[in-house]
């Protein structure tokens, strides 16, 4: 075979190979830039929720009444279980308060209007000054806005890897730690209660999310919260603290962080006037082996308990001690009772 024919054959086979990869990635749509759904992309691995959820807002027509923000603990709240309002769940792993402003502005731009409600699930680790810095939100937005972004994704190695993982999960019908469907609803695999006890008991302090072992209170937290309110005067803020197992609260006491925990609650209440606190000792957090998959993630099937409480809807099935409504008027008494 002549060199010319060899090069032509090589080029032809390369085009065929790349076409097959691009077609497969398009078929699976791992970064949520297209709208098609089928059984093989029905279980989606959350490889980069910041980018994936931003894609959902950017490439699909957005028309939402409310924006839901928070960490991985908030991802399990089903946005379709909110009654009477259309909510977009824009939460992602290790979300920090200082990031929210940028993501809110991006979401408002795609939504083409202010949100009637901005709902935020706060985490204690979000008050830690020493948490490792996340990717700059503007870098994500610039990436999404870059030339031929979603077409370049078709030939990305990362896209191919996630597509293969999604195919595997769909075939095995395995949600693993966390997976999404095509409607931004998160699912997880149920774990035996005895196994949960073992997992939680064997969790070391250095494994706690948010570098809690190197904790230092972020004194700028109040300013961050105040800026959120100032930048969104047309939105009503609904703020709650994410529930964690009693083991986590016990560890905060052991690490002498309980005063910081109370300071975090106090600043949150004074910044937003009212919060709903689920992160205390209550029927759900004490009985964590039933309701949690680990020390801090409540199962999606119980997310309606949180939603109904924060939205003041049907609370008939809600334990009375789960979700304390805190205001400036009752804050001092509540903090004293925590002792």
The helix content is 40-55%
Q: Describe the largest sheet.
A: 6 strands, mixed
> Element order, helices and strands?
HEHEHEHEHHHEEHHEHHEHHHEH
Count of separate DSSP helical elements: 15
Structural class: alpha/beta
Which stretches are poorly predicted, pLDDT < 50 over at least 5 residues?
none
Shape: globular
Overall mean confidence score, pLDDT: 94
Name the strands of the widest sheet in spatial order: 3-2-4-7-8-9
Structure write-up:
This protein has helices at residues 3-28, 49-59, 72-75, 97-111, 137-145, 149-152, 157-172, 193-201, 221-231, 246-254, 258-272, 283-286, 288-291, 303-310, 331-338, and strands at 44-45, 66-69, 87-89, 117-122, 179-180, 186-187, 236-241, 274-277, 324-327. With 339 residues, the protein is of the alpha/beta class. The strands form 2 sheets. A 6-stranded mixed sheet has the order 3-2-4-7-8-9. Strand 5 (179-180) and strand 6 form a beta hairpin. Helix 1 packs across helix 7 (157-172), helix 2 crosses helix 5 (137-145) and helix 4 packs parallel to helix 9 (221-231). The longest helix is centred in the N-terminal third of the chain and has 26 residues, at 3-28. The protein is globular, with a radius of gyration of 22 Å. The termini are far apart. The model has no long low-confidence stretch (mean pLDDT 94).
Write the layout of secondary structure elements.
Elements: H1 3-28, E1 44-45, H2 49-59, E2 66-69, H3 72-75, E3 87-89, H4 97-111, E4 117-122, H5 137-145, H6 149-152, H7 157-172, E5 179-180, E6 186-187, H8 193-201, H9 221-231, E7 236-241, H10 246-254, H11 258-272, E8 274-277, H12 283-286, H13 288-291, H14 303-310, E9 324-327, H15 331-338
Helix pairs in contact: 1-7, 2-5, 4-9, 9-11
